[in-house]
User: Which sequence fits this backbone?
């Protein structure tokens, strides 16, 4: 069993109109090498699901998005992702704006093969108004409470960045917060991971770190070796986010033809030319992890 | 305890903000933004020793973390609070956040999602509802609004109801409106809450030098004078010393335009 693939082979498995979920959280641990490969492709009409960061903005900027399902789309220090904001204000994409916890519950229901999760979250707010397909359900017990039946969010594909993986599909993820990568993996028909480090057998080399596995290999379809593949987002403990680069990216959203400029300058070539264009490996590895 | 003679409006807000957590016991206190975060830190070190706090990322700490670059200071961690456990805390009700909506209405509903236009094409896209729907239905929330005006305290309802308030009409048919817990609303002019008759907004205290009429003129909905309405208490020298320690880079001076004094000239 060898699940190793390259970026192109992963994107070849994606289809127009698919629902794709992304691991990570804002500008943290996003599978950006795969996002850039999608940007280089002809894929379109995608539905994206995320606690979003620059992956959402970039895919919106390139016109590949039909619909967004999100808890937020943010670059942290820049609270609203610039191209997400542009797409929203132009009405360019359909949106399902969710409470962050509702996104969690929808993914969890999908992973558990359930049609919905019962919750109070969302009731009384405009989440109900702007997601008119959401329905309520009445508790069958004595309390009779009316709850939101948060529908399962089933993904065709989840794309997730990890710290280490092996060719069997075992993964390990460093950093203080696992976020919801496990829920994205379980909600998806296929999961493709990019990894900072790829080994033959993770048990042979990183046995002491088994607790940092967030989902089991049965969910993993393919593994891509992509060191620095989360840049410009952070990948604990390898490198922090690149706020300088993200500021340049954000500035492009205010320029005439800015996205084309960004694409030509950074994305157009391949991952080797990308790393060179943003200052090279040593510079990326020296990016400090953020402090709050 | 010595009442301070000179203090900034930001420091007054932090000192009165700390009181928001005073009777909470052991809950996760989350102050979003510099002044709410300083208020939570001050509360932990004075009136609310039971509250729990995070390092702003994924760990619990017993000593509030100073704002900004830390030099050699290394936080001591007492527990783990990744986002999955933040949601567990939210849904358990064991949390009290202080947040800053862009719009607030007479029902205490808050908006951070979008302004104007249609929802699918708003005039201004903001943060999205983020965690506000769940937070507001599950646990107590207080608010800090740095710019008390009719643009923030709107005449009608907020453009998008992100956090729920005392507005029964927004509940689906058959559902019992949640037991919403709104704490205090602290602004650059006053402190108020929604505990008047039928959850009407009532002013608890006016900041030094501010009149009730001035606050009403800057508010899009009617305000009541709470019984015993008073002047917001000046911070003590001890409180100012703690605030200075929690904010060594003086971030608090950058929050309110011109960093005004806590006592307005009449």
Assistant:
């Amino acid at each position: 069993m060898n699940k190793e693939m390259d970026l192109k082979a992963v994107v070849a498995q994606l289809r127009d109109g698919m629902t794709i979920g992304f691991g990570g959280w804002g500008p943290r641990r996003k599978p950006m090498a795969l996002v850039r490969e999608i940007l280089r492709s002809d894929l379109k009409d995608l539905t994206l699901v995320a606690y979003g960061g620059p992956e959402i903005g970039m895919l919106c900027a390139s016109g590949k998005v039909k619909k967004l399902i999100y808890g937020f789309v943010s670059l942290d220090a820049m609270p609203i992702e610039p191209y997400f904001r542009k797409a929203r204000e132009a009405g360019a994409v359909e949106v399902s704006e969710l409470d962050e916890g509702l996104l969690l519950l929808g993914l969890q229901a999908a992973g558990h093969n359930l049609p919905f999760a019962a919750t109070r979250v969302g009731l009384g707010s405009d989440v109900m108004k702007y997601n008119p397909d959401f329905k309520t359900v009445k508790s069958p017990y004595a309390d009779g409470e009316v709850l939101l039946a948060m529908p399962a969010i089933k993904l065709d594909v989840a794309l997730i960045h990890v710290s280490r993986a092996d060719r069997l599909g075992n993964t390990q993820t460093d950093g203080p917060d696992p976020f919801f990568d496990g829920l994205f993996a379980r909600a998806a028909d296929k999961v493709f991971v990019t990894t900072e480090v790829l080994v033959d057998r993770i048990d042979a080399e990183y046995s002491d770190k088994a607790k940092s596995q967030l989902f089991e290999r049965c969910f993993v379809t393919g593994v891509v070796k992509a060191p620095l593949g989360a840049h410009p987002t952070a990948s604990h403990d390898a490198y922090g986010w690149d706020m300088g680069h993200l500021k340049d990216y954000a500035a492009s959203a205010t320029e005439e033809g800015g996205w084309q400029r960004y694409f030509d300058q950074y994305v157009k070539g391949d991952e080797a030319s990308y790393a060179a264009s943003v200052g090279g490996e040593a510079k990326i590895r020296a990016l400090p992890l953020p402090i709050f | 305890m010595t009442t301070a003679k000179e203090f900034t409006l930001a420091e007054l807000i932090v000192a009165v903000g700390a009181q928001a957590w005073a009777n909470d016991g052991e809950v996760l206190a989350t102050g979003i933004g510099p002044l709410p975060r300083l208020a939570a830190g001050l509360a932990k070190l004075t009136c609310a020793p039971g509250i729990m706090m995070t390092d702003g990322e994924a760990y619990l700490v017993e000593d509030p973390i100073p704002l900004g670059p830390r030099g050699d200071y290394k936080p001591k961690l007492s527990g783990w609070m990744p986002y999955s456990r933040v949601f567990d805390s939210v849904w358990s009700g064991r949390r009290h956040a202080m947040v800053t909506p862009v719009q607030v209405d007479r029902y205490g509903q808050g908006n951070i999602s979008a302004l104007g236009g249609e929802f699918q094409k708003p005039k201004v896209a903001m943060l999205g509802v983020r965690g506000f729907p769940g937070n507001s239905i599950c646990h107590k929330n207080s608010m800090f609004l740095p710019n008390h005006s009719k643009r923030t305290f709107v005449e009608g309802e907020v453009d998008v109801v992100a956090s729920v308030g005392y507005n029964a009409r927004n509940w689906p048919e058959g559902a019992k409106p949640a037991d919403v817990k709104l704490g205090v609303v602290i602004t650059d002019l006053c402190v108020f809450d929604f505990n008047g008759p039928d959850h009407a907004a009532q002013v608890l205290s006016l900041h030094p030098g501010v009149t009730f009429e001035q606050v009403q003129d800057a508010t899009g909905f009617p305000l009541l004078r709470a019984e015993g309405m008073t002047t917001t208490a000046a911070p003590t020298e001890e409180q100012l010393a703690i605030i200075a320690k929690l904010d060594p880079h003086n971030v608090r001076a950058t929050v309110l335009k011109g960093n005004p004094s806590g006592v307005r000239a009449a």
User: Anything to note?
Assistant: The first strand of chain A starts at residue 4 and ends at 5. The first helix of chain A runs from residue 7 to 12. The mean pLDDT of chain A is 97.
